[in-house]
Amino acid sequence: MASERLEPLERLTDMFRRLDGVGKKSAMRYAFCVLNFTDDEAKAFAEAILAAKSDIHQCSRCQNITAGELCPICSDERRDTGVICVVEDPRAVFAIEKTRQYGGLYHVLHGTISPARGITPDRLKIRELLTRLQTEEVSEVILATNPTVEGEATAMYIAKLLSPLGIQVSRIANGVPVGGDLEFTDEVTLRRAMEGRYLL
Amino acid sequence: MASERLEPLERLTDMFRRLDGVGKKSAMRYAFCVLNFTDDEAKAFAEAILAAKSDIHQCSRCQNITAGELCPICSDERRDTGVICVVEDPRAVFAIEKTRQYGGLYHVLHGTISPARGITPDRLKIRELLTRLQTEEVSEVILATNPTVEGEATAMYIAKLLSPLGIQVSRIANGVPVGGDLEFTDEVTLRRAMEGRYLL
């Protein structure tokens, strides 16, 4: 009976817990925040959730998320259509775009190959990438999946798949993060940083 | 134009940022999670927000949050109605209830006195506490506001207010947290722990 009286709060806490990286305490804190929202704010929040789900889908070309048919990057005529940067998820696109350095297009895989979690290559947008390489004039594919075990494996898988196509395939560099400290850099990263050293 | 295409996502990110302790990066991560929700999950989330806002209000007796007229604690006949534990917010009630040690009632202030943030005593549920002390038979009031500057000030304010009523007023103890380390305990806490030492 006691719990019945707070059921709406528990339901909301449960929903917050479904978000990545949100534990029991944070979920409860967020639910309490919502209680302190004005009615208008709560309504706006609920509507934002539904709108994000209904209005956002994947770009028909690069699979990045967008509210239009083509994403803003694919429909930007100033971008270099000869280079495709392959990333795991839309967040990586945001991160690379923030550098304001890259002028090519993207291809979003929406995941990495992970036998442990049952994610086989056919569950990623690899087929769509191959189709693009057949229909678009692409000179280079940059594999920018994360430098994790799964990201590396996915990059290697795609590199192998693309090797017969005669397209230049590259992988982003590993190394010591700028502003980082050698003392706190793990051995593998440090070894990669040494291997990837460049002449001055 | 570019931003227009992702407007629903930005609106959702903005809503997440209004939650306590959620920065730009977390808000975006949460928004992306919502995109990965099923339609049913997104609908359940939106409904949970609206339901929490519309169904949960304050207990007419102790001001704790509840979906009923009286909260589960106030309507539990086994509780000791002679003791009232005064706390800042409903989360403190949850925390104390988890100890399974306290059998009395609560009174939720919904904040602390904070001249800096313009929160004067009349904005807290202090008037409601005084009314309870006049109409209920209370022998002790435990002041369990947080051990922060504002929590202490609020406790002291209420203690002074209650002193003419001839009710026993107590304050929760300060000290070294169980499982804590003296080395990492701040001086003020350590001094309080020494002052509050008890004979074995």
Would you write up a description of this structure?
The structure is a homodimer of 200-residue chains. With 200 residues, chain A is an alpha/beta fold. Chain A folds into 2 domains: 2-55, RecR Domain 1 (Helicase, Ruva Protein, domain 3, Orthogonal Bundle), CATH 1.10.8.420; 58-199, Dna Topoisomerase Vi A Subunit, Chain: A, domain 2, CATH 3.40.1360. Chain A contains 7 helices and 6 strands; from the N terminus they run αααβββαβαβαβα. The first copy, chain A, has helices at 7-17, 24-36, 39-55, 90-98, 126-135, 149-162, 187-195, and strands spanning 57-58, 65-66, 80-87, 104-108, 140-143, 168-171. In chain A, the strands form 2 sheets. Chain A has a 4-stranded parallel beta sheet with strand order 4-3-5-6. Chain A has a two-stranded antiparallel sheet with strand order 1-2. In chain A, α1 (7-17) packs across α2. Chain A is globular. The model of chain A has no long low-confidence stretch (mean pLDDT 90). At the A-B interface, α1, α2, α3, β2 and α4 of A face α1, α2, α3, β2 and α4 of B.
Write a concise keyword list for the protein shown above:
homodimer, 200 residues, alpha/beta, Helicase, Ruva Protein, domain 3, Dna Topoisomerase Vi A Subunit, Chain: A, domain 2, 2 domains, four-stranded parallel beta sheet, two-stranded antiparallel ribbon, 6 strands, 42% helix, globular
